[in-house]
Amino acid sequence: xxxxxxxxxxxxxxxxxxxxxxxxxxxxxxxxxxxxxxxxxxxxxxxxxxxxxxxxxxxxxxxxxxxxxxxxxxxxxxxxxxxxxxxxxxxxxxxxxxxxxxxxxxxxxxxxxxxxxxxxxxxxxxxxxxxxxxxxxxxxxxxxxxxxxxxxxxxxxxxxxxxxxxxxxxxxxxxxxxxxxxxxxxxxxxxxxxxxxxxxxxxxxxxxxxxxxxxxxxxxxxxxxxxxxxxxxxxxxxxxxxxxxxxxxxxxxxxxxxxxxxxxxxxxxxxxxxxxxxxxxxxxxxxxxxxxxxxxxxxxxxxxxxxxxxxxxxxxxxxxxxxxxxxxxxxxxxxxxxxxxxxxxxxxxxxxxxxxxxxxxxxxxxxxxxxxxxxxxxxxxxxxxxxxxxxxxxxxxxxxxxxxxxxxxxxxxxxxxxxxxxxxxxxxxxxxxxxxxxxxxxxxxxxxxxxxxxxxxxxxxxxxxxxxxxxxxxxxxxxxxxxxxxxxxxxxxxxxxxxxxxxxxx
Amino acid sequence: xxxxxxxxxxxxxxxxxxxxxxxxxxxxxxxxxxxxxxxxxxxxxxxxxxxxxxxxxxxxxxxxxxxxxxxxxxxxxxxxxxxxxxxxxxxxxxxxxxxxxxxxxxxxxxxxxxxxxxxxxxxxxxxxxxxxxxxxxxxxxxxxxxxxxxxxxxxxxxxxxxxxxxxxxxxxxxxxxxxxxxxxxxxxxxxxxxxxxxxxxxxxxxxxxxxxxxxxxxxxxxxxxxxxxxxxxxxxxxxxxxxxxxxxxxxxxxxxxxxxxxxxxxxxxxxxxxxxxxxxxxxxxxxxxxxxxxxxxxxxxxxxxxxxxxxx
Amino acid sequence: xxxxxxxxxxxxxxxxxxxxxxxxxxxxxxxxxxxxxxxxxxxxxxxxxxxxxxxxxxxxxxxxxxxxxxxxxxxxxxxxxxxxxxxxxxxxxxxxxxxxxxxxxxxxxxxxxxxxxxxxxxxxxxxxxxxxxxxxxxxxxxxxxxxxxxxxxxxxxxxxxxxxxxxxxxxxxxxxxxxxxxxxxxxxxxxxxxxxxxxxxxxxxxxxxxxxxxxxxxxxxxxxxxxxxxxxxxxxxxxxxxxxxxxxxxxxxxxxxxxxxxxxxxxxxxxxxxxxxxxxxxxxxxxxxxxxxxxxxxxxxxxxxxxxxxxxxxxxxxxxxxxxxxxxxxxxx
Amino acid sequence: xxxxxxxxxxxxxxxxxxxxxxxxxxxxxxxxxxxxxxxxxxxxxxxxxxxxxxxxxxxxxxxxxxxxxxxxxxxxxxxxxxxxxxxxxxxxxxxxxxxxxxxxxxxxxxxxxxxxxxxxxxxxxxxxxxxxxxxxxxxxxxxxxxxxxxxxxxxxxxxxxxxxxxxxxxxxxxxxxxxxxxxxxxxxxxxxxxxxxxxxxxxxxxxxxxxxxxxxxxxxxxxxxxxxxxxxxxxxxxxxxxxxxxxxxxxxxxxxxxxxxxxxxxxxxxxxxxxxxxxxxxxxxxxxxxxxxxxxxxxxxxxxxxxxxxxxxxxxxxxxxxxxxxxxxxxxx
Lengths: 506, 312, 333, 333
Ligand SMILES: Nc1ncnc2c1ncn2[C@@H]1O[C@H](COP(=O)(O)OP(=O)(O)OP(=O)(O)O)[C@@H](O)[C@H]1O
Ligand SMILES: Nc1ncnc2c1ncn2[C@@H]1O[C@H](COP(=O)(O)OP(=O)(O)OP(=O)(O)O)[C@@H](O)[C@H]1O
Ligand SMILES: [Mg+2]
Ligand SMILES: [Mg+2]
Description:
The complex is a heterotetramer, with one copy of chain A, one copy of chain B and two copies of chain C.
Chain A: E1 5-16, E2 19-30, E3 34-39, H1 45-52, E4 60-65, E5 68-70, H2 75-80, E6 83-86, H3 98-102, H4 104-109, H5 117-131, H6 145-157, E7 163-167, H7 175-190, E8 194-198, H8 202-208, E9 211-216, E10 219-225, H9 231-239, E11 260-269, E12 276-281, E13 285-290, H10 296-303, E14 310-316, E15 319-320, H11 326-331, E16 334-337, H12 341-345, H13 352-356, H14 373-386, H15 403-415, E17 421-425, H16 433-448, E18 452-456, H17 460-466, E19 469-474, E20 477-483, H18 489-498
Parallel strand pairs in A: 3-8, 3-9, 6-7, 7-8, 13-18, 13-19, 16-17, 17-18
Antiparallel strand pairs in A: 1-2, 1-4, 4-5, 9-10, 11-12, 11-14, 14-15, 19-20
Chain B: E1 11-16, H1 24-38, E2 41-46, H2 52-64, E3 69-72, H3 81-89, E4 93-97, E5 108-111, H4 114-129, E6 134-139, H5 144-160, E7 165-171, H6 176-189, E8 193-198, H7 201-213, E9 219-223, H8 227-234, E10 240-244, H9 246-261, H10 272-275, E11 282-286, E12 289-292, H11 302-306
Parallel strand pairs in B: 1-2, 1-3, 3-4, 4-5, 5-11, 6-7, 6-8, 8-9, 9-10
Antiparallel strand pairs in B: 10-12
Chain C: H1 2-9, H2 11-26, H3 30-46, H4 53-78, H5 86-102, H6 107-132, H7 136-155, E1 160-161, H8 167-174, E2 176-177, E3 180-181, H9 182-200, H10 202-212, H11 214-218, H12 224-250, E4 252-253, H13 261-271, H14 283-302, H15 307-332
Antiparallel strand pairs in C: 1-4, 2-3
Helix pairs in contact in C: 3-14, 4-9, 4-10, 4-12, 4-13, 4-14, 5-6, 5-7, 5-12, 6-7, 6-12, 8-12, 9-10, 13-14, 14-15
The complex binds adenosine-5'-triphosphate (2 copies) and magnesium ion (2 copies).
Residues 142, 144, 146, 272, 290, 292-298, 339, 458 of chain A line the site of one adenosine-5'-triphosphate.
């Protein structure tokens, strides 16, 4: 590794109306390094990356590449300068095949007149092969959100770039894919490509990156060699304090209750899952682990009647439960937090307050069915404060929030209805450490107050840290359960990948 | 042939555009009556749309049926030159009505004289409001007979009554709501407006509503008639309407087509035998128009007329 | 000191006042209001007849009934749909009610039946959209053709003269209460009622959710198909209401009424800020859009602009106004 | 043995064959083709005149020129746009070329100028959409009105008679090569050319990317505004071409030509599988949509169906056909 600075940002500022997203930021990227960016939600990380990729124009400040001052007017210019970007929000063309999506930039600059689909699909298969098996001729609209994330990564890897930006690429990936990605990143870095890596997972930063820069409130705070610091230093710089407890205290032995909140028996769906049986007990947080595409989301969506034709029996608090629709499910206090926040979690162009109240606007309506706006806003403001949401005004559209803050809106939306049973699918996707700890604390409080909680997460440390018990799903079946001391990444991964072959865990 | 009589199965077609328009109804009744007298079959054809390509397609499809003759209302004159000529070459005689294709080889053209209507209307207006008053027109640019009714009246006024002042000229395109809006504005801008000439009845319905609402003293005259404007004539809200003799148009239209298809029944004093053209050549037949007033309005109730008749 | 005291005494009112003005300025519709005002001032200078009560009344009358259809279309657009059949369905409302009346049915009963028929047509379209899964565009296009056909079939293409309608029925189309035409009062009632409901009720909030992101709405427990079915039906029902008022106003039922109305109505809504992608729009804005279109047309007629120039000027003003509005909205954002 | 050998000898051909049939069956358009075939068979039984050369030619001639506009509209729809001005712009093409010709300009030069003018109009719309940021709908609505106004202004509302057009010019509209009208040949050339380009060229793939997700396309370095500008301009240019062919065919220029054409053209594209949201559609499908509409209209005329029933039947067939097609597509998926 050399110390050549390839990309240099100086004194860069960017505002959105009254919101000052970047305030005089300085930043240096060296050749062949993997440089992590850390910062709370809304600190300005994505904004800075969008400026570097030419998607946004800075209000002031300079960008130089190889010592040359440059003006990056559009992503096309950025591409010419050798900048590749995996976006925080997936941006793929749904009506187009995976192969074409991956090579969109190549097609764009290609001099050849005709498309060669055959060659494209072969090349795409090669690129994808390393990451995951997806047929390159499928349309992107038919892929699950995590597979789309992988396509998005594959797309950036094919670019002939010198600077590769990865904005929270692993938020929807499991350990397995993340490890593959890190391998690829290190190989690229070895070839002299510089990588900016944004993540809220400290482990990833400390395992894979060379340097780390910390942002807070639109300012660059510090840049350090990873070798010289410990995670607490970074967190401290990010939030201005040390977060002493990343995870709340778990249920103690004597708090354990045998009261079952949700009892699911032999739940099956035609193709997606089979004979799923489990219970959520009072006071506990139950985890659901598995590989991408194992069917975790499907099981949960099936339970609350969002998708699929499900057979099997369920009971809630001892009473038989038969739901006809998700509306029915909500009215019984069972809610689902979606993993695809942009696709089906939030209303991007609607005000924050209207988003938060979407599950039950009746709650702030008067006797005539009229929404009382100040009540709506007051209640939304309370939830926003509880989740430490960073926003301008509650009437702003959700699209003006940073990715992590959008996720908090999605969570607030769910908490709005005072649920009895919550299914959370990747609840802390893109959420910073501080807020994550807060969300975990809220979940624990809810669980203690008798709310049933089930968490799906691809981040194993989170599952292990938060849950009292973790079920593992493999190819649509529950392949095992771990709890207590047995909750280790190895055990979970084993169950998730080996599936049917049940190793002795106890 | 046995004189003025059709062979069994000999068919005549009447082809129009916007075939749902009520204007065609009495025309086709006349056409049918004449055909019945000669023992001929008839078909009412055309396109429901205001679309020249569709009308030409329907025209050509009619030709597949090999009719003896066709009474045609060509939506535009020039596009029909080639199809008409082709039809005649393949043995179908064509007569035009209400709109012409003069450069084609059609054998006859029957219509009401729009110039005469305009002149009559101008004289009537002057008779009612004097020869130095303000008047306005509504129009429907692009439709030739409506255009003619308007432009002819304006130039007749300019030539013969130079003191008549044209104060408003608005396109309302047969839309009663647009006519309401336009008339209301004209009335606003011209408090002394004395008369209004409208080349069709749809706009007249809207115009009369505006005049009544503004409680203005304006003489309204229009061409064609609908049940609603007929009622307004009876009530004295509309002064007068000029209505083409549609029945005669259809009846004479059939006669001309039939004769074109049976040129052997007469022998004009000319060179047709040596030169080889159809002796039935009538450049222009005027079917005349009726003047509808309060007094005779009852005779123009289309619903009463259609009672007991088959519309198709 | 006193100042300070009074300041602290009325913090709520003050901030409410300031925020009211700020909210006014921030409102989507402010630009349009400004543009319309500019047109008004220009026209008042250009023509002494413009700013008269009679002219204003005529101008409002010219779009009031169509305005009721605009309300329905706006709500439908917000939910993510579109309806090309509004003109035909309005005509059908006239024809059905007129035909029934001529066949001896009481005009009020005939009107009720006619509105029910239109509602049924809306439900029919709603069925094809939500159950069969077709796009609003193609379904409403087919229904536009079918409804026009029924109009022709029911009347033989001839307008139905309905001069025998009883005066108390004609009153809804031609009467006045004080100096104000009943038509305008009905129009205002519909507009204010739906504007209020759209802004405030939970029912209509669901219309916004559905149009903004149908999947997210479904994932919020909203029966989005029902919502779309409802807005589709509502739009046709309002066409029915408009048709009845037209019938009372013109004293006739015209089978060819309303050809091309759909473009006008959609244009009004879009000018007023409704998105063709769904999820946004206001009744107030859409009505302003209709006002803008109507003021321009009326002004051109009032100024006796040549027929051949009118279309050119009208189109240009439309384009300019929309561009200015867009610029203002963007600038404020 | 021989069999086996020959089988193994041509493994590629075999699998290519099988996959060809499978691909045919999987193709979006198969359902439409089937529906049209059913209509054809039914019509051939119902009317002896249907399956005649003259009738077939008349049917194709009825949509061939409009088909060129359908091509432009489909491409524009794929890129996420829409154009309501196609009818007016086609009329304008006729009027401009006709006017120039009557003023002594060579008809070929006049046609070139006229197509250039139409292209300019497209660029004008493209500017308002991509630079000012207005929606296609409203921009093209304004241009529709303006272009119609220019037509009226340039002709005084009267058609221009152009019977003096030289025969070699009229040839493109009225001539035949062998038994096939030149118009149909031009139409086929345009359709096949653009269908091929849309499926295979890198340039047109960008149109799909832009329409499917403009942001994603822009992030990949595609200048999406240029793409939209291009498709908007292309659509108007093709209207220009269509207008010239119409002029040669009719020997006149009609200022009122093409009123309502936009709905027909958009309907054809949508029936053929184009999405109003952008990102999908094919030329082949859109032309099938145009064929379907045309066959239905022609058939009703040929069968002497009462005018009063025609619209009802036409709308119902349209709705049924689209529903069946939708069902087939969904079932295959
Ligand atoms: N389009 C926009 N309009 C208004 N404000 C915006 C917009 N985009 C970003 N912001 C604001 O800019 C600030 C920085 O946002 P940014 O997306 O850069 O945060 P981030 O560091 O990437 O956070 P996260 O970890 O949540 O992704 C936030 O306060 C956000 O609300
Ligand atoms: N819309 C869809 N169409 C077809 N197949 C789907 C669809 N959504 C999901 N699948 C498939 O269903 C299976 C289960 O997916 P699911 O999303 O439930 O997995 P998961 O365990 O939640 O993992 P992740 O969400 O991390 O991908 C996968 O094989 C996936 O590809
Ligand atoms: Mg971010
Ligand atoms: Mg999942």
